[in-house]
Amino acid sequence: MSYHLLTYSLIFLPAVMLLYQLAPEKYRWSVLLAADYVFFWMISKKLIICLLASTVITYVTGRVLGFVTESGKVKGKKLTARKRIILACGICLTLGLLIVYKYLRVFGISLIAPIGISYYTLQTISYMMDVYRCTIKAEKKFAKTALYLSFFPQLMEGPISRFSDVAEALYSGKQIEFENLVFGYQRIIWGLFKKMLIADRIAPMVGKVFNSYESYAGSAIAIGVICFTIQLYMEFSGCMDIVIGSGQIFGVKLPENFRQPFFAKSASDFWRRWHITLGAWLKDYVFYPVSLAKPVKKIGKKVKGIWGINVSKFVAPTIALFFVWLSNGIWHGAGWTYLFYGMYYFVIIFLENILENPAAKLMERMKLSQEGMPVKLLRGIKLFFIVNIGEMFFRAPTLSQGFGMLGRMLTSFNLSALFETNFGVDGYDIILAVVCFAIVMVVDVLHEKGISIRQRIASQRLAVRWGFWYAAILCIVIFGAYGAGYTVVDMIYAAY
Amino acid sequence: MEKLLEILEEIAPGEDVKNCTTLIDDHILDSFAILTLVSELEEEFEIEVSPAELIPDNFNSAAALWDMICRLKEEG
Q: Which domain holds residue A200?
């Protein structure tokens, strides 16, 4: 079972919808919970025990934190110290499970990790931290905590949601509304379009280039790298469309994970638009706590005394930024490529931060406008290289192969060899992927301008509306990469 | 309140910080600006801002910020 398979959108999802709708309102959340565990059983079998263990730890930690806070037996610094110990125990236990399954391979112990463990572990931590910070109240029912941590549409790839954002909708048991059903399925169709018509079509080409880059010229490697960036965006954002659409059907508004990332102005802006919920999680639970930690503040004050505020203002954010990108890299996996990927963005964003003011002053002296075409163009080219080089190392099987690819691009680009290269896909695949990618980019431009296409289509006459969506379904059926000659491509981000 | 507005004007020059109610929602204050603001507030008003306070509700407007400062001063 996977979100992009038709068994999900045509069998599993409708079955859950039917049972949900038939159940009395106050038991509908139980139907969702049952669906979550059936779904998880289908993808991870006996590893369901890990999800259950994380849920027990989270629930108990939340309840104990809530009890200690509300009982009023201890107050002030004693209360904070006690809560800190409870929180630390909870986090160590859930993180411990993640480490055992995901990172012991560093020491040669390879275990099959439950799918989605990286995502639901972050949700367990955010829940416990929010109860600790008293921004939410601990959920009293164990089964409801379990539902928040295992909502089936987001179980495999996120988005990483917060309890305060989704809990009410998950538990309300409101009946499925026609508009939500239509809009939800429209979003699912859009996700399948991205995954099956673009990502899966270029997947063989990307695989070939990355697995045997030595036999390709630098120009062909560059095309392979660009195609991987496109594949990753189409696949991950397409999956998010399916996930968010599924949530919408049940009236659960899951957070958006992408916001036109290719229209970003800088690397930090790119990360405010790409995998948004991971960035937001790291900001709230790593960046701010590290920045405001007493030792970090002390270092900042010392630096202020020596070099003044213009230097000291960068100290706390830079230390915190290092931990954010270290966490981001390690979160993706135990390989050196991921660590390098994290540190790569740490250096780039650090440089962006310290050079922001000097660059603005230089542009002012040169009488260049931030919104002028030359600056926009240069900014676009810079981001193009930053993103693609980053994704190259992210996808490369090993760090040395990543550098090898970079070396070949710099030393033997050989543009003419590109036209004789066999990428393992035919002209039909390439033309179709290019046309569909252009469609997605047009949609992204409209979204960037604040135009909602679904609303626009919904305001058309019935024949136009249904004609459009039937055409979209037919497009996927006719042009989707499936059947003879194609192998089903697993979702990339489900592996993290 | 005047001191707070001065600090805000220094951190977000050219913005209508007195009346704006979407300082966070409209990305007028990014995470770096928030940390600079917190550091200035801690020094000026002798308060300690914990990570739990760093939520949009507390930072979206000068009024919300002032409420947070008063509350933290009271809590001592």
A: 176-258+378-486
The total number of structural domains in chain A stands at: 3
Residue A336 lies in a domain: yes
ipTM, two decimals, is 0.81
The verdict on a CB contact (< 8 Å) between A284 and B32 is no
Q: How many folded domains does chain B comprise?
A: 1
Min distance A385 CA to chain B CA atoms (Å):
25
Sort out which chain B residues have CB atoms less than 8 A from A353's CB and list them. Answer: 32
Terminal CA-to-CA distance of chain A, rounded, Å? 17
Instruction: Tell me whether residue A254 is in a domain.
Output: yes
How many CA atoms within 13 Å lie on the side-chain side of A170? 26
Contact call for A313 and B39, based on CB within 8 A:
yes
Say yes or no for a CB contact (<8 Å) between B51 and A133: yes
Identify whether residues A347 and A426 lie together within a single domain. Answer: no
Give the other-Cβ count within 10 Å of A47's Cβ.
19
Asked if A154 and A254 touch (Cβ cutoff 8 Å), the reply is yes
pLDDT along chain A (496 residues), means of 10: 83 95 94 95 90 96 94 83 95 94 82 88 96 93 96 92 95 93 92 91 91 91 95 94 96 95 93 95 94 89 83 88 95 91 96 88 84 88 96 94 94 83 82 92 92 84 85 80 63 67
**Residue A361 to residue B14: CA distance in whole angstroms:** 16
- CA A130 to chain B, closest CA, distance in angstroms equals 8
- Chain B residues whose beta carbon lies within 8 Å of the beta carbon of residue A300: 39
